[in-house]
Structure formats: C-alpha cells, structure tokens
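User: Predict the structure for this protein chain, please.
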Amino acid sequence: MKKILLMISLVMFAANVYAEEEPRAEDEVANYEILEMFGNNIKVSSDGTGIVKNVECKVCTSKILKITKDTKTYVDGKAADLVKIKKSRGNAVAMIRFDVASNEVILIRW
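Assistant: Here is the predicted structure, written as structure tokens:
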C-alpha cells in the first residue's frame, strides 16, 4: 500500500513540474502589466476594437489602453467574442493584460 501511495505521489509531483513551461523569448523582452478593472471601464465598438479607460498603475504612461483586433478574450478559460461577452458580462470585473510600452491590451479575461 505504501508503494502505491509513493508512486501516486511521484506521478502527481511529476505532472506539476511538467505543467510549468519555460518563458518564451518575446515574454522576456516585453514589459507586461496585469490589472483588474470593472467592465464599465471597457468600451468596445462593433468591430471589436476599443479602449480601457481610467487605468491607474505605477508604471502606466497613459490612463487609456487600446483594444485591437489582436486582443484575445477569454471567459471561464475559453476563447470568446469580445463584443458579445461585453454585452453579457457588463460591469463584471475583468483581468486585463497589456504591453506597457505600446498601451495595447493583449488579453482580457472574465
């Protein structure tokens, strides 16, 4: 019984180590920040572009971030359409990842 528990423990430990991945080269160069914002600060047009307003952080150079066609949107871990999700999620808190140098939103996650 002890051998079985030991084997299970080793497999679980190995899975955790395997799940960690090495940082990609572009992540090491880029300077990203992550914020949590209420949805009422996210403004989206019908083409999926828009802005995040009232941004406040220590390294931010602007109070407005740009949402582009390249911005990825996820809800509960699944890719989603930003225009549709913004209508349904409204003012819910969202996690926003952006590039500090360009003020471009990389990822929005609800």
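Confidence is low (pLDDT under 50) at residues 15-23.
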